[in-house]
Amino acid sequence: MSVLxxxxxxxxxxxxxxxxxxxxxxxxxxGHIIGLLGPNGSGKTTIIKxxxxxxxxxxxxxxxxxxxPNPSTKAIISYLPERTYLExxxxxxxxxxxxxxxxxxxxxxxxxxxxxxxxxxxxxxxxTLSKGTKExxxxxxxxxxxxxxxxxxxxxxxxxxxxxxxxxxxxxxxxDKEASVLICTHLIxxxxxxxxDVIFLKDGQVTLHCPAAEIREKYxxxxxxxxxxxxxx
Amino acid sequence: xxxxxxxxxWKDSFLFMIILxxxxxxxxxxxxxxxxxMDISELDYERPFQGLMYGTYVLVYVxxxxxxxxxxxxxxxxxxxxxxxxxxGYLMHTLPVTEHELIFSKLSVAxxxxxxxxxxxxxxxxxxxxxxxxxxxxxxxxxxxxxxRFGIEPGRISLIIIMSLLFALGYALYTYLxxxxxxxxxxxxxxxxxIASVGAFIGIxxxxxxxxxxxMVCIGSTSFTRYLFMSASRIDDKGxxxxxxxxxxxxxxxCAILYLxxxxxxxxxxxxx
Lengths: 233, 273
Description:
Helix content of chain B: over 70%
Number of domains of chain A: 1
Strand order of the largest sheet of chain A: 5-6-7-3-8-9
Largest sheet of chain B: none
Largest sheet of chain A: 6 strands, mixed
Number of strands of chain B: 0
CATH architecture of chain A: 3-Layer(aba) Sandwich
CATH class of chain A: Alpha Beta
Number of helices of chain B: 9
Oligomer: heterodimer
Strand content of chain A: 25-35%
Number of helices of chain A: 9
Number of strands of chain A: 9
Helix content of chain A: 25-40%
Radius of gyration of chain A: 18 Å
Order of helices and strands of chain A: EEEHEHEHHHEHEHEEHH
């Protein structure tokens, strides 16, 4: 298994505030589903944004297959942000066309099959869809790529439990076993079964990085329960 | 990837821009029909309705041109801001494209629409002028003779026209790049990024104006248009040519600086919080 992401002494400070990410070192290998877990404000989204080149580190570096974020690293990452990033005036079909043009690993037929399974009309304007449906559309687009790394920021936060199951199945069924999936979520119990590894983040630092099975064996509790114990207020 | 970015930018802006340009074209055709059916020289107080129609049309037409140019400029500023620095930036900045490609695709589409608008307005005004003059428009030869009456050497006419067109093109480029750079500088603000962008716009514009005026004074002029109005009977074509050449060089240097500012912020200081 090769190293996919490497964070070296990564630090991020927002406008005259203290560090959100503080001298963080982290390595993520290919072929894993990893849960990036931590309480609010622990820096999960900040790390994800730096990996995607949406935020510039204050100090240190992020390397994707040995390179700082650039067009070629963006071509191998499929990113689902925690917000709606699609133009509301466009139709779902327009967005599929857009993704087909820019990502050579995008499979439109796979996207159309998933849209059909979720009964989402391709001709519908995004502005006419509910928030949950927009989130589903975004997830479908992201998971219809054959990327090396999928980064999913809160993929199941805004949807009902039935759709959550569908989304989790979609993630498991659609990613290449050589690829990695980095999932950032608060809903640990929903995704626990699929996680290979977990990363606990607190105050911008990694406090734990180990296989999910190790937590269950060592502490005799689920990842969700262990998380609650570690981050109890 | 540049071609694909261009394609989508063109597609997304097409409807709005075609409505704006189409409206002016339609207004020009209506005007041409309207003026063809009346004689402006006969407008007087005894025909108040015709006078009112004439006045209203001119007002609507002038406002229409204003909306076309200012409205389209603001439209492309807003598109740039939304696509690059709001939630949509999460998509645009994770595409496998360079920052140069992002800026260039937006700039080239905006410029093409500006040129189309200029052609539409020129054609529209020609159409109206033609209908007012009742086909009695001067020929190119007559226009050339008229210009020579002001003392401009025939060999310089085409050079002056080329330099003026270059300036017009440079100014349109400057208008967009000023907006892009201001929006990018505005992202440094912790809050109220739009207000900060407007502040940056005013600030950069003032600096550019001051610098330009300073350089123009140094070469012995304040503005190239001064040479057009120095004397009613004679134009200082040599002075005009020098002033417009300096203005051309300056505007393209400013454009290059604004482009580099936009690119540097996007590449090195992007912070989509």
